[in-house]
Task: inverse folding
């Protein structure tokens, strides 16, 4: 349940000369799922434990990462009969909040955006055009002009998500009929106040980020030309920036101080706190069992393995 063994499809078992240069690799993770795992199992073992933290005022982030066509959007959004992490997490969040209503007043606000070709679009209000990333005086990243919807009901959010997802940029490529061409970020902010009036009243604020990244892709495999090729280049560039940040963060605390360049792309600036800052972060790495995507699977596993070594204090 914790090991992934990656076999090289081009290897010949009878080739004595190259026997000791095998590219077979074993990776160990906190949790490994095979093709039989259900949405519920994945949710319970990755995300469920973070929900309590968000209510107590901690931040949490869930990533879906991997090459194109490996099922990231399915894990995060799911289908009507098999809902994904978005819906399950919000259901649990509202159930937990309703249990505290006697002592606490709470508000939940939601924003849903996509990063497409290095510009930010609001999926709940697509007519607002491209939005800017700004840093406020406390150093937290804000998106100017984003729609924040306040709600007290998981059903409402589910409808918003479905509506927002229809606005998301998806195009067919040779690798995947509904390939996501943008990174989607769902941000849920929970604010709680005590109902008893006391001096120096404290407000608890927890943020939950859920990120469905676009898949890294090779132009040769997706047979992209023109506009699709351009999108692919932007996607790969932002994922490379994310990889560089993860690399630098996983080496941090070593002998030499590493500089972490969060400003290389909009994606890494948005996720700055989730990666090296005040947040509990889960990365769900997706790989494809196809022998044609051996290289992508190998890179994804190395990437996820590095992310596992990042230590943050929440």
Result:
């Amino acid at each position: 349940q914790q090991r992934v063994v990656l076999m090289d499809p081009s290897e010949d078992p009878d080739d004595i000369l190259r026997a000791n240069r095998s590219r077979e690799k074993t990776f160990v993770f906190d949790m490994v799922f095979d093709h039989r795992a259900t949405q519920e199992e994945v949710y319970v073992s990755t995300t469920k434990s973070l929900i309590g933290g968000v209510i107590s005022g901690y931040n949490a982030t869930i990533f879906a990462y991997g090459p194109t066509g490996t099922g990231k959007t399915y894990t995060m959004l799911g289908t009507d009969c098999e809902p994904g992490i978005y819906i399950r997490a919000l259901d649990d969040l509202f159930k937990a909040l309703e249990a505290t209503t006697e002592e606490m007043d709470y508000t939940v606000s939601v924003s849903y955006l996509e990063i497409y070709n290095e510009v930010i679009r609001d999926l709940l209000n697509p007519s607002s055009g491209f939005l800017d990333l700004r840093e406020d005086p406390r150093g937290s990243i804000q998106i100017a002009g984003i729609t924040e919807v306040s709600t007290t009901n998981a059903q409402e959010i589910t409808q918003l998500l479905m509506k927002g997802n229809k606005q998301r940029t998806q195009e067919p490529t040779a690798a995947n009929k509904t390939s996501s061409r943008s990174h989607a970020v769902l941000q849920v902010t929970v604010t709680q106040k005590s109902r008893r009036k006391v001096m120096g009243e404290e407000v608890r604020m927890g943020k939950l980020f859920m990120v469905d990244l676009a898949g890294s892709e090779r132009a040769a495999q997706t047979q992209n030309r023109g506009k699709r090729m351009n999108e692919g280049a932007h996607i790969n560039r932002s994922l490379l920036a994310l990889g560089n940040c993860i690399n630098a963060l996983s080496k941090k605390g070593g002998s030499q101080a590493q500089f972490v360049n969060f400003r290389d792309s909009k994606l890494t600036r948005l996720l700055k706190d989730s990666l090296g800052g005040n947040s509990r972060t889960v990365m769900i790495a997706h790989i494809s069992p196809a022998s044609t995507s051996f290289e992508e699977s190998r890179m994804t596993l190395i990437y996820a393995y590095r992310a596992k070594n990042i230590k943050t204090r929440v």
Notes: The chain has a mean pLDDT of 83.
